[in-house]
Amino acid sequence: MHTETFKVAGMTCNGCTSKVAHALNAIKGVHDVVVSLSNGEVAIRYDEHVTAIDKLKSAVKGVGYDVDITNVAQKPQSKQGCCG
């Protein structure tokens, strides 16, 4: 198992965190997802032999959010999330 944490830009409410968590949990090989709205982060525990970080990143982007897998400071929010 591998755990990856990265920044997610654009989340503005619990509905946003639910969308991100649901998208990631739907990926085969993902075992645990913890989304923090206050930190703008998601931590994912997954089997690196079944899925890859690029697939995780694509899932988050697919539901409308930007991701930063380099763990550098969060980018300015360029989207309004699911509420705006």
Task: Describe this structure as you would to a colleague.
This protein is an alpha+beta fold and 84 residues long. Helix content is 26%, strand content 29%. It has 2 helices and 4 strands. The protein has a 4-stranded antiparallel beta sheet, with helices on one face. Residues 71-79 have low confidence and may be disordered.
Tell me the helix content.
Answer: 25-40%
- Overall mean pLDDT stands at 86
Order of strands side by side in the largest beta sheet? Answer: 2-3-1-4
Using only CA atoms, what is the Rg? 12 Å
Low-confidence stretches: 71-79
Structural category is alpha+beta
Estimate the strand proportion: 25-35%
The geometry reads as globular
Write down how many β-strands occur, each being a DSSP E stretch of 2 or more residues: 4
Helix-strand pattern: EHEEHE
Number of helices: 2
- Give the end-to-end Cα distance, rounded to a whole number of Å: 36 Å
Q: How many strands, which pairing sense, and closed or not: the largest β-sheet?
A: 4 strands, antiparallel
Helix and strand layout, with pairings?
Elements: E1 2-9, H1 14-25, E2 30-36, E3 41-46, H2 53-62, E4 66-68
Antiparallel strand pairs: 1-3, 1-4, 2-3
Characteristic key phrases:
84 residues; alpha+beta; 2 helices
Question: Quick recap of the structure?
Answer:
The chain has a 4-stranded antiparallel beta sheet with strand order 2-3-1-4, with helices on one face.
